[in-house]
Design brief:
Elements lengths: L4 H4 L12 H15 L7 E5 L6 H12 L2 E5 L7 H7 L14 E5 L13 H11 L4 E5 L7 H5 L1 E5 L5 H14 L3 E2 L1 H11 L3 H11 L5 E2 L1 H7 L7 H10 L3 H7 L7 H15 L2 H24 L5 H14 L15 H8 L1 H18 L3 H17 L4 H8 L3 H7 L7 H31 L2 H12 L9 H16 L16 H20 L2
Parallel strand pairs: 1-4, 1-5, 2-3, 3-4, 6-7
Helix pairs in contact: 4-5, 7-8, 8-9, 8-10, 9-10, 11-12, 11-15, 12-15, 13-14, 13-15, 14-15, 17-18, 17-20, 18-19, 19-21
Length: 514
């Protein structure tokens, strides 16, 4: 069976990694810090598009530094238990030979909910406590949790130029004694869109059973590749005509509602002056049609939006644009990723408010949050409201626009917890009181059995009569006239007990009367 060329020609040294010299330099510096001790950031994130050499760089680093490598990829279950069992011990001790271990966790941005339950938190804990170097491989940097990103060194890998990919393919053809036309190699490289791994797979598929590869062979063996968003942006901003800009978006695996954010983010980086003004005017018209699609659910209007945001943007420039521009993903998506936790807390608080007030979550979030916020800020009412709605410290902090660690938030939360605890104790007392009052028949039966015993000394009727007499005296006591005398009369024990019970009932009412 023929081996895969991707594995056969995987780089064994960092110098063999193509097109990402800056990333390789940062990776070497991080590894050198491990050789001299323990660096401030014990883990690094290698992120970038698929097929640009992130995993190859990690494995090449292990070979170059003479480290053992332990790899955990997406096919492995990455729950908290699995990570603790497989990677946890390896992160704390060296090998028997004294060498370091390099822990490589692939697709760290793609942890599935139930299948990888607790994996993200376990990786963060692993990064903070590790005594061995850790490399996380990810395609989408901002798909990872912010605490994990902050704890790691970020190293970005970029797409590889088509000419660089073609040079790598030519070296593989020489090693395989395969004659190739230069045009065929460029066709494969351009179709790969900066993905070296895909280009090598395409080359192997097209050259299967051939000794000479031509452009015609590549055309029949070419993969069905979706156009890259970066190629589409290049076609829109630098295309020769509005028609070519529109056609470049046909194979894009993005909806117009996503594409408009990409164009909005990168338009000021390419256009200046009047061109920028005309470009945003065309983009605003596209946004109008997108709004009509959302309101009317008429997706046929997408074609008008697509034309304005592609052909309209291309026609807005006064001349051909040159030079290299590093296109960036929409900053809106980055901000949404950074505020994901806050939005989850907000929605959780809105659900609790809506459940208590019998309204929808949206109404509770927009109309009642400010009202609840004012109640929480009140010194006397705040803890009772927090206890009634069962709010945690993060939800309280969000509603009063503070931090969960401030003294005010902690005071409200702790007092609310005490109120909830007193409510639970009161319910227990009530339940126990009902249990004592409920079985009077059992007590009579027990006394009857005692009366019917053969032991003449076992006379239990006298204490019962005494208890009954005491009950009668207590029952008649309130009806007796009270002698007038100075000062407040002493309270009977039964009255004190009744007042204590009434006070508990008042506390119960004060908590739930809101």
């Amino acid at each position: 069976m023929q081996s895969r060329w991707v594995e056969k020609y995987r780089p064994s040294r960092l110098d063999d990694i193509l097109g990402n010299d800056k990333a390789i330099s940062l990776l070497r510096s991080w590894a050198a810090a491990w050789q001299s001790g323990s660096p401030e950031q014990r883990a690094a994130i290698l992120y970038g598009p698929a097929g640009v050499g992130k995993t190859s760089a990690a494995l090449a680093l292990a070979q170059e530094m003479d480290w053992d490598a332990i790899e955990m990829n997406a096919s492995d279950q990455r729950t908290a238990t699995a990570i603790g069992a497989v990677v946890g011990p390896a992160s704390q001790a060296k090998t028997f030979s004294g060498r370091r271990r390099l822990i490589v966790i692939d697709e760290a941005d793609n942890l599935h909910g139930t299948y990888d339950r607790g994996g993200a938190a376990a990786i963060l804990r692993l990064v903070r406590e590790t005594a061995q170097p850790i490399l996380l491989i990810a395609n989408e940097y901002y798909a990872m949790e912010k605490p994990l990103r902050d704890a790691c060194l970020a190293i970005q890998f970029r797409s590889i130029r088509a000419t660089t990919v073609a040079l790598a393919l030519r070296e593989i053809c020489r090693a395989e004694n395969l004659e190739c036309q230069p045009e065929a190699l460029m066709s494969i490289s351009e179709s790969a869109g900066g993905d070296l791994r895909s280009a090598i797979n395409d080359l192997q598929a097209a050259a299967e059973g051939l000794s000479r590869l031509t452009v015609e062979d590549v055309a029949t063996g070419e993969r069905d590749v979706k156009a890259s968003i970066f190629r589409v942006l290049d076609g829109i901003f630098r295309g020769s005509s509005a028609t070519s800009a529109l056609k470049s978006s046909y194979d894009l695996d993005e909806s117009p509602e996503d594409l408009v954010h990409w164009i909005d983010e990168n338009l000021p980086a390419v256009y200046k002056g009047p061109d920028l003004y005309r470009g945003f005017e065309s983009l605003s018209r596209a946004d109008i049609f997108l709004g009509r699609v959302r309101i009317r659910q008429n997706y046929g209007m997408w074609r008008y939006a697509s034309f304005f945001m592609t052909g309209g943007i291309s026609a807005a420039k006064s001349g051909r644009k040159g030079g290299y521009v590093a296109f960036k993903p929409p900053s809106l998506w980055r901000r949404l990723g950074q505020t994901r936790k806050a939005r989850n807390v907000r929605d959780s608080a809105a659900k609790k408010i809506g459940r208590h007030c019998h309204v929808g979550v949206g109404y509770a979030r927009t109309e009642l949050s400010e009202f609840i916020s004012r109640l929480l800020r009140d010194k006397g009412m705040g803890p009772r409201v927090a206890a009634l709605l069962d709010l945690n410290a993060e939800e309280i902090a969000l509603l009063i626009e503070s931090s969960p660690t401030t003294r005010k938030v902690q005071s409200i939360f702790e007092e609310a917890e005490l109120l909830k605890e007193s409510e639970r104790l009161l319910e227990i007392r009530k339940g126990l009181g009902e249990a004592v009052k409920s079985p009077p028949d059992q007590e009579d039966g027990a006394s009857g059995e005692a009366k019917g015993t053969d032991d003449p000394k076992a006379d239990t009727s006298a204490p019962d009569d005494a208890d009954k007499g005491a009950d009668c005296q207590r029952a008649e006591k309130p009806a007796q006239p009270v002698r007038k005398r100075r000062g407040r009369p002493p309270k009977a024990e039964s009255e004190k007990a009744r007042e204590g019970q009434q006070q508990d009932q008042k506390q119960q009412k004060s908590l739930f009367e809101f």
